[in-house]
Amino acid sequence: MFRWKLWQEIGVDLGTATVLIYVKGQGIMLREPSVIAMVRDTSEVKAVGDEAYRMLGRTPGNIVAVRPMRDGVIADYELTEKMLKAFVRKVITGPGRLFKPHIMVCVPSGVTEVERRAVLQATREVGARKAFLIEEPLAAAVGAGVNIAEPTGSMIVDIGGGTTDIAIISLGGIVVSESLRIAGNEFDEAIIRHTRHKENLLIGDRTAEEVKMKVGAAMITRPNDIHELEVRGRDLINGLPKTIKVTTEDTVEALKEPIQKIADGVRRVLELAPPELVSDVIDRGIIMTGGGSLLRNFDELLRQTTGIPVVVADNARDCVALGTGQALDMIHVLQDALISDTFLRR
Asked: Which of 3, 17, 101 lies closest to 291, judged by CA?
């Protein structure tokens, strides 16, 4: 007999840079920065998400705006719980408010048991009826439209804000994987370091992110790949404001080291994979997901590094969130790969 579900089913991409929340039947209902602002002495929450992000680097002494997630995992448990609770309240509407939701949260493939417990505990404290964890490469594959239940190898490279997860997936599980704590945030820091070293100019995180998005590239393949952007910062010699032009060549030079580490990680996963699955990957190509995969010519660099076709998923930024929500309908396929709140009672 058909029964109405009185609770909502929610998928959460709890990212280092951005939180995305998918509500079953409604799609992605929230996309906000992973930032929380609070009063320093009382721990009163002043703002979360977009409003708190605008406060970064601009708060008075008694208010602090921070990112409670670091490298894809919880760095500050209490702040993460408060931030997640505020976000979940925003998306649960109507009769759903009366019933605890089922929540699936994605985590990097390399997290420790302690980190898994922290995420599950925070999810239960938010008010979840049932809490599940899914590893990011699996969620990204589901969100990208890969039939993960097939006995065929699929390779995913998910580049988020705090981690890059590389995995080969077959039969609903991860066969070989590697999680690198190098991703979009590390790209921003590399641009800041390069600008400070080359121009004696100190720029902020938000400026570095703008440089990465507007003129950044993994490599230059043709002349019209080159762009430039005016940026403002503080001159480290005289302490005064200064404006310079940053070019695509500057970003290629700045990002060379972190990008090479990701390329090396892809090669290591391919070297460790069974030959039959590598053969499947050669036929099907490598799928890139996550905001970091949108860096200009990153797919071409990986293609040249591995000799394997590389494609960026159509909805690269949203793949993990979509897959996390859709995985709630695939528990029978993913039962061996998921971690549920029974893990807390062990």
From this structure: 17
Which residue is listed with tokens 């925003």? 90
**Other Cβ atoms within 10 Å of 271 Cβ, number:** 9
The dihedral built from the CA positions of residue 128, 134, 140 and 144, taken in this order, carries a sign that is negative
Strand partners for 202:
234
User: Range of 206's domain?
Assistant: 184-254
Count the residues in the chain: 346
Give yes or no: residues 54 and 109 share one domain: yes
281 and 168, same domain (yes or no):
yes
Residues 234 and 122 grouped into a single domain: no
Residue type, 74: I
Q: What is the pLDDT of residues 29-78, one digit of tens each?
A: 999 999 999 888 777 888 999 999 888 777 777 888 888 988 878 888 88
Whole-angstrom Cα distance, residue 186 to residue 265?
Answer: 15
- CA end-to-end distance (rounded Å), the chain: 34
Same domain, 306 and 280: yes
Decide if 1 is inside a domain: no
- pTM confidence score: 0.89
Domain for residue 4, yes or no? no
